[in-house]
């Protein structure tokens, strides 16, 4: 099942994609897509609906969840990406957070004031569906409601040159676009075999597959839950494959007027206009 939230003239409405790829209005059944919607029993009820009988809906994509709780991120989780960043292969998942709100799959990316090294990172996102603490790898997917795609937009100068960990370079407004859909786990047969790519102005920049992750989805959920209680509505971004701007020689970064498109097999496509910061 692919759940989303659609911006219409009557406000944001919950929606689902039917078997033919048509978006259908779910507002007759739920008022919004929330953390409560992610519970297994709630997802089962929505899945049992005959989606083809629902009204069609059109509009642009809002973030697929109205109450994302926290955004956790895993750094350097692809072997080739660690190499292009000139960083060691981690022994354990590198965990950091993005301290910004999520944005939608077609919302703009805003280059922060004074930034000159704004970069892209297409990533698989994990959507937590139930309280998770000290879970085993074997049981980790039982706590996952589904998956999404994300772009861990990063300002490399803020990230690298101002001390501390990476949160300064990861948390500007618009730096956490997600979507367009929450794709439930039953619709993702193997999260460790998803092709992913990103283009800037039509030029292929990133190509990869989740098969080359250093730490798998199961390992990540188990590891994070050892230290932090995860709750419904938490997102975990699982790292990016090679091809980020920082890794090119010379480096290549985003500028106002660029267009960033990204896709992950089965999870959809995102498209973002890049714009300059404005007071």
Written overview of the protein:
The chain is α+β, with helices and mostly antiparallel strands and 279 residues long. The protein folds into two domains: 2-62, no CATH class; 71-276, Fumarylacetoacetase-like, C-terminal domain (Fumarylacetoacetate hydrolase, domain 2), CATH 3.90.850.10. Helices cover 13% and strands 32% of the residues. The chain contains five helices and 17 strands. It has helices at 40-48, 79-84, 156-161, 167-170, 217-227, and strands spanning 2-8, 11-17, 23-25, 60-62, 71-75, 94-98, 109-111, 118-119, 122-128, 144-151, 154-155, 178-184, 195-200, 203-209, 235-237, 259-264, 268-276. The strands form three sheets. Strands 1, 2, 3, 4, 5, 6, 9, 10, 12 and 15 form a ten-stranded mixed beta sheet that branches. The chain has a five-stranded mixed beta sheet with strand order 7-17-16-13-14, with no helix packed on it. A two-stranded antiparallel sheet has the order 8-11. A hairpin with a 3-residue loop joins strand 16 (259-264) and strand 17. The longest helix has 11 residues, at 217-227. The chain is globular and about 55 Å long. The chain starts with a strand and ends with a strand. The mean pLDDT is 96.
